[in-house]
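> tool_call: predict_assembly(chains=two)
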Amino acid sequence: GESVGLHLPTLSVQEGDNSIINCAYSNSASDYFIWYKQESGKGPQFIIDIRSNMDKRQGQRVTVLLNKTVKHLSLQIAATQPGDSAVYFCAESNDMRFGAGTRLTVKP
Amino acid sequence: DAGITQSPRHKVTETGTPVTLRCHQTENHRYMYWYRQDPGHGLRLIHYSYGVKDTDKGEVSDGYSVSRSKTEDFLLTLESATSSQTSVYFCAISESNRVAEAFFGQGTRLTVV
């Protein structure tokens, strides 16, 4: 069946640098996407969402980009901080499944 | 945090014993979900509920059953626990059937020895 997946399982960045986490999806009918952050020992928490009629949405230090042509979603974190270290998941509205996630590690 | 409480937070049990995990919500959300999370597999849906006494299977439902007799409670039961069911279990709730809009609990770490 169609599913959401992630390109890279791990990402290591220097504190202060920008981070980009990618996600591919295959269900062209999906109209809503969400990024979750999961810190160690905790449940996933909502970060930011985007609807399919948008290409970009910005939050506080985070930006989500949606490219429907290639069915690609990305999460950009500006000025990455140690507190951003976590596993990041994307999810789509029509799917109850999540990918394995990308583990972001921020080096001081 | 959304009003979701999972209990217990940690449990160690022996193979072959029954185990019940509880998810309690105070948000009056219609949809509730049980996921398990294992290294390399991410979150996998076990069962979900779309109303009182209305439940359906997810992708890894074998060995698990659920019940929802009240809006606020969603129980996950392992009838006869096996070591392969050692995992971290997450409950989630959502107002709509868009699981992508779900709020997650803190998780229950279950170890079957």
